[in-house]
Amino acid sequence: MATDYYTVLGVGRDASQDQIKKAFRRLARELHPDVNPDPKTQERFKEINAAYEVLSDPQKKQVYDLGGDPLSQAGGAGGAGGFGAGFGNFSDIMDAFFGASSQRGPRSRTRRGQDAMIRLDVELEEAAFGTTKEIQVDTAIVCTTCTGEGAAPGTSAQTCDMCRGRGEVSQVTRSFLGQVMTSRPCPQCQGFGTVVPTPCPECAGDGRIRSRRTLTVKIPAGVDNGTRIQLAGEGEVGPGGGPAGDLYVEIHELPHSVFQRRGDDLHCTVTIPMTAASLGTKCPLETLDGLEEIDIRPGTQSGQSIPLHQRGVTHLRGGGRGDLIVHVEVLTPSKLDPEQEELLRRIAKLRGEERPTGQFQPGQQGLFSRLKDAFNGR
Predict the structure, then answer these.
(1) 163 labelled as ligand-binding?
(2) How far is the CA of 183 from the CAs of 57, 154, 169, 187, 245, in angstroms?
(3) Which of 181, 242, 248, 333 is the most exposed place for a label (fewest CB within 10 A)?
(4) CATH of 260-351, one of 3.30.420.40, 3.30.1240.10, 2.60.260.20, 2.30.300.10
(5) Phi and psi at residue 305, to the nearest 5°
(6) Which residue ranges does the record assign to the J domain (predicted)?
(7) Which homologous superfamily is 5-98 in?
(8) In this structure, what DSSP letter does residue 222 have?
(9) For residue range 187-231, what is the model confidence (pLDDT) as tens digits?
(10) Any binding-site annotation on 283?
C-alpha cells in the first residue's frame, strides 16, 4: 500500500490507542479546513482522517497491519463532503477543538451515597466536659435480600441487547460535513449496559433499603452550637450497594437555667441586698464543678463582676478552660417599715448623706446637642 498511516500520523507501529488519538487531535487542530483553507492542507487533512479511521479501529488496524486494505469495502476516505466518508468519529474532531468529551462506555450501577446530617441536643454540662451519646438514624443501607445487586434472588443483570453492553447507541447522519456519527445513552438500559429483568422485590432494583440504626457518638469537650461531628461512612449507602456517604452530627446546646455561654466563658448574675453589698457576705453558687462560695467583698457596687478562673467550658482545641464571670446586682429595698426607715436615716446622718448632691460624669451627647454643635460650627 502506498500510504503509510503510521507515518501520516507521526507515530510508531507500536503506538497505543491513546498515543494515536493524541497525534490525530494535534494534527486536526493544525490542518482543519476552517483553520487552514489551503487546498493542499485539505488533502493532508483527508489523509490524517483516513489514517485515524483505520488505526483507531482494532479490526481495521489488524487488516492494515497484515497488508490488506481496510477501506476498500467502506469506499475509501474520499467520499462526499469536505471530510469524506472516512470521517472516523466526529466527536474526536470536536475533542480536538473543544476538549475531551464525556467518558464513553457503560455507567456503573454502583455509586457513592449522599451525606446525611442530624441535629443533636446536648446539655451545657455535656458540651463543657464531653460525653458519649447514642443516636438513632434513618438512612439507606444495603438491601439484605439482593446484597446490593438489585436483581431478585436466583437472577442476575443481563447485557442490554440494544447497545450490547456499551451503554450508548450511535447514529450516522449526513450533513454538509459528510457522514457524522453521534452517540447518546442507550434508552433501554439508561446507559448502564445491563438490564435487570427481575428486580429485587425488597428494594425494587435500587440495591438499598431504608432502616433505623443506633450509633454511638463521642461528643468532645468544648463543642458549641453549630459544631459538626463527622462520622465517616455512616451516611446513605449509594445506589447499587455503593459506598456510604458521611454522617454529620450538628450540635445544638440547650439553654441553661443559670449560666449564659459566651464563647468558652460562662456568665451569671447574683442579686444581693444593699446591706450585704455594704457589709460583704458569701453567696453559695452551684457551678459546673460543684457548690462554691462566692466572696462578696464589703462595698461591692451593682454591676461589678467577680471572675472565677478555669470554671467555664473546656477549650475545644488546646488545653484549659474558660472563666465563670459572676455579675453582682445590688437590690435596693422599695418598702421600709418605720423602724428600718429610722435606722437608715440615722446611717445617712452619720455619713453626711442626708442631702446628697450626686456625682455627674461626662456622658455621650444627645442628638439635639450634636445638632446644636453642628449649626454652631463646633
Answers:
(1) yes
(2) 17, 34, 6, 12, 32
(3) 333
(4) 2.60.260.20
(5) -125, 150
(6) 4-68
(7) DnaJ domain (1.10.287.110)
(8) T
(9) 999 889 999 999 999 999 999 999 999 999 999 999 999 999 999
(10) no
